[in-house]
Amino acid sequence: MLSREERNPLSDWWWTVDKPLLGSILALMLCGVILSLAASPPVATRIGLDPFHFFNRHVLFLLPSFIVLIGVSFLSPRQIRRSALLVFAIAIVLIVLTLAIGPEVKGSRRWITLVGVNIQASEAAKPAFVVVVAWLFSESARRPDMPATTMALALLLMLVSLLVMEPDFGQTMLILMVWGSLFFIAGMRMIWVAGLASAAAAGLFGAYLLVPHVAGRIKRFMNPASGDTFQVDTAMEAFSNGGWFGLGPGEGIAKRSLPDSHTDFVFAVAAEEFGIILCLALVTLFAFIVIRTLSRAYATEDAFSRFAASGLAILFGIQAAINISVNLQLIPAKGMTLPFVSYGGSSIVSLAYGVGMMLALTRQRPRIEIEATGAAGALRSYA
Questions:
Q1: What membrane topology does the annotation report for this chain (predicted)?
Q2: I need a labelling partner for 340 at 20 to 30 A (CA). Which of 120, 132, 320, 323 fits?
């Protein structure tokens, strides 16, 4: 057992990390393992793979993800800023390479293969982007003469432009919502927030007019008779079949025909086999992680830690909300993973990086440490 009197990195981490938050994240990972075992075998069998192909890979991805999560949670705020800037720069380069040489799948270029590993660079860009923008907003609040807000807007336009070129409008909307939330939290005037919302709405309308598959999804959502709604209809049937307590592990019907039962529609599989009770438990876990992080963030006096932790929590929560809403047919279908539950290597590792930063930023640090790693130190390190 680690003693409070011991002065080493492991002891300091153990007595300062938010244990309820860490426990909730690990519980979510465990739920992901169970649901991957329930949802993925029929998909693997349909495409001629070993029944446990996706499950084995899901567990394999969790191992480096856990290492990343714990390792990043040891970092100081200054180290988090530096790592986020480096990860964001690498992710941008990889996105550009993906657009240039990545394979086209269903009209999109989102993946690139490096050293035999498929990488979706936009996943890694999200948490790093949030932290970099949080740093800029904290500097803008501390030094109004610094054009930090302009720089944050420039980074937003750059990332959004690259995502639109893939195209990936779901990630684009997610990034815009998180950036707008941070913009509001940083104390910017409502007129600017309203302007951003209007620009996002105009962009969505432009995508509806100019991009056929976006228009198709919106039309099918508004009028199901206008096209193929097999996946969302099957997902809704799964909720109805499962009821409150589910059909039982392995007894689900929807996963036998849903092409994306292990990714986009794993929540529906959970509802059918384990019931609405489990779904409510999952929603409670997501809500607890977000609310706990926000409450801890607003208890800190360091503006950067407050903005960054809040932005990461909002990113995590909105992504989960989008996936669940698609499963419940509340919004048009969009390929968005359910954090730590859906299958996907890039998604799980990137989420672990983001959640690791959440844990690091919400650790209980003495005031002297916060001041020593404050914004002035960060400016000197980037100078």
A1: Multi-pass membrane protein
A2: 132
